[in-house]
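Sharing a chain and its predicted structure for anyone who wants a worked example. Both blocks are below, sequence first, tokens second.
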Amino acid sequence: MTLQSMTGFARSEGSSGRYRWAWELRSVNGKGLDLRLRLPSGMEALETALRDIASQSLSRGNIQAGLSVSASETKLEAVVNRDALDAVLALKQQLGNAVSDAPLSFDTLLSVRGLVEFREPEETEDAQAARNADIVDGFSAAVASLKAMREREGASLYTLLSTHIDRIEQLTSVIEADPSRQPEHIRARLEAQIALIGDGNGSLDRERLYAEAALLATKADLREEIDRLTSHVSAARELLAAGGPVGRKLDFLAQEFNRESNTICSKSNASAVTAAGIELKVVIDQFREQVQNLE
């Protein structure tokens, strides 16, 4: 499975009978799949089918989907109100000689309010079903186009996130290899510091000094943090390789990365380790920022 970004745009348009329709889809980051449909009046019945189509291809993102429909030509038909016409004719007969015996003119009939109504002809159910089917197919095409764009963005994110993971691994190796982590180095540094405040006669108990150095080395040991970082690096690579909707899992790993880097900086007893830890935090922040864009 490929990675998908949660940002993208797609458009699909076409015609059905005398109607033209157009879909526009916009996608941005979201915690889940939130599809917001804007449909013309009378087409609300399509919503269930549209949501099913979207959920089959997308799992996360706030998606705005708008449909516009217009008639390519306007056709009108005249509809005669038979009850009104019968009432007019009955009134003429009732009035008898009080009015002219001449037949009612067409212009006169048109002037009677409500007698003739001009309106668009009603479409048959088959025509409506065909139009709606074409519109739903157009939505499927738009979703497919949106997914393709999100996958292209996902491929770029894969490269960028892999680079960040490689750098995290490199900095972890730098921290692991730093000589300041060795008990001998800690003991030497402790001796030098004590010599500055002592009498310099070398009468300090060497066994006690070694014990203190070992205690400090234990408190400052970064083995667990380094091992966890190494494990998280492997897990992140496996998730990227697996693809699919892995954004939430990678975001969790980013939090774990950050926790270990904070601990390393707090335990550090050497400027080189501190510098590597700070750079590690910067890279992790960049990693997490990009992970927010993943499905």
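Comments welcome. Residues 93 and 99 are 9 Å apart (CA to CA).
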